[in-house]
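re: the backbone from monday

yeah here it is again, tokenized this time
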């Protein structure tokens, strides 16, 4: 593939080993062009929650393709978008009732931040333009999204000098940090519009977990200082943490939520920014300039909405939450053995997320090649090896993923790669 013209994501194109060519997918398996077959422990960046090529989603997309693949939402609307928005509003907590569609998670975050800024402009609070976010957080690769990612550990350190300055704080996980969090928010409240965070699991920033109590604490401070609360559930949404949405575990309804990744079950790109009635109402006016001036060309793509509606059908008709509970139990018992290995600091599990925390960043390319040799697709990053398989994975396949993690860590340790 040395002659490829594809510039791949997150990749040093000069030195990284050549990518695998995938020809076909089915269930939890990836079939490579060279004839090999891999069990998928990543679910294509956590999207393929029902496994690949689920017949119900395929049929829904094929049917929609016959009728209408796409039509602009400027002046039009259609049943797949109407249905999906109504169903998301019904599924989401509180008064999260107004759904703005885009095509990627980063753009959903941009839209959430734009809404939080314009909410202040529309209410005559034009100086409240900054955001609170958290260390180890990740919210996407576009510019406003980068500004609320971890500024040091994240992938965007290089751009620090050109990004808006946000208030990026440690998560208030101890009484001391909670006091510091509250005083930082108090000191800056006059210039802050919103808190943005990934509830319960900071995923791409290091697979770090925090408790529902921490979430409740943050929500309480946000309310006290009249900040909007934005939950970025792009990674955690759709059952991954054991409930449909992570925020449910703290009984908290944010003012804005962002969704993407598993929204279409890994079939088509789609994202949603969902706002509460009171946020939405700040945009209603006889003055046209109060409107939200945002409109991705492919907003509410009908094929993607059909896939998402079919994915929601599957959450209603197939036992995903029970499957997540079973995966959690198997990950917790199966990954235990890794605790004893040299170079391993910690093992943790939340829902269908299993994490082996290493002492330091390993030789990632070498580790990834070892997983391939074991016939599994596991893609460690930073200082973590993690499993986030499709939620439909059977216990035998999950056992093979878990065994591969153990075996690869043993081999890598012996080879001095950890
Ligand atoms: C993946 C992710 C994003 C960005 O989504 P893209 O579709 O890759 O732009 C934003 N926030 C969180 C929490 C994510 O996991």
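seq for it, each position gets an aa:
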């Amino acid at each position: 593939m040395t002659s490829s013209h594809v510039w791949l994501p997150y990749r040093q194109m000069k030195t990284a080993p050549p990518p695998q060519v995938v020809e076909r997918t089915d269930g939890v398996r990836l079939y490579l062009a060279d004839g090999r077959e891999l069990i998928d422990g990543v679910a294509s960046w956590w999207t393929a929650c029902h496994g690949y090529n689920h017949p119900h989603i395929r049929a829904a997309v094929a049917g929609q393709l016959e009728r209408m693949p796409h039509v602009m939402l400027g002046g039009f609307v259609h049943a797949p978008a109407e249905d999906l928005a109504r169903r998301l509003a019904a599924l989401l907590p509180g008064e999260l009732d107004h759904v703005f569609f885009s095509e990627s998670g980063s753009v959903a975050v941009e839209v959430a931040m734009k809404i939080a800024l314009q909410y202040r402009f529309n209410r005559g609070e034009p100086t409240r333009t900054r955001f609170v976010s958290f260390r180890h957080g990740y919210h996407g690769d576009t510019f406003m999204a980068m500004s609320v990612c971890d500024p040091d550990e994240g992938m965007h350190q290089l751009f620090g000098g050109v990004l808006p300055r946000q208030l990026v704080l440690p998560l208030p996980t101890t009484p001391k940090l909670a006091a510091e969090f509250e005083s930082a928010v108090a000191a800056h409240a006059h210039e802050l519009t919103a808190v943005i965070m990934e509830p319960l699991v900071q995923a791409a920033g290091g697979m770090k977990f925090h408790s529902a109590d921490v979430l409740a604490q943050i929500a309480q401070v946000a309310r006290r200082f009249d900040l909007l609360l934005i939950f970025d559930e792009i990674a955690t949404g759709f059952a991954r943490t054991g409930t449909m949405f992570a925020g449910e575990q703290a009984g908290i309804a944010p003012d804005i939520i962002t969704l993407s990744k598993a929204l279409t079950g890994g079939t088509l790109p789609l994202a949603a920014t969902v706002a509460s009635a009171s946020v939405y109402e700040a945009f209603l006016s006889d003055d046209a300039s109060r409107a939200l001036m945002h409109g991705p060309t492919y907003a509410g793509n009908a094929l993607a909405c059909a896939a998402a509606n079919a994915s929601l059908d599957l959450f209603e008709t197939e036992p995903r939450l029970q499957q997540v509970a079973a995966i959690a139990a198997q990950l917790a018992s199966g990954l235990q053995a890794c605790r004893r290995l040299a170079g391993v600091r910690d093992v943790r599990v939340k829902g269908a997320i299993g994490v082996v925390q290493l002492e330091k960043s390993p030789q990632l390319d070498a580790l990834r090649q070892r997983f391939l040799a074991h016939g599994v697709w596991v893609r460690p990053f930073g200082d973590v090896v993690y499993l986030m398989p499709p939620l439909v994975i059977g216990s035998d396949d999950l056992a093979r993923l878990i065994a591969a993690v153990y075996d690869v860590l043993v081999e890598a340790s012996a080879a001095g790669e950890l």
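The chain is about 35% helix and 15% strand. Residues 319-414 form a domain with the Aspartate Aminotransferase, domain 1 fold (CATH 3.90.1150.10).
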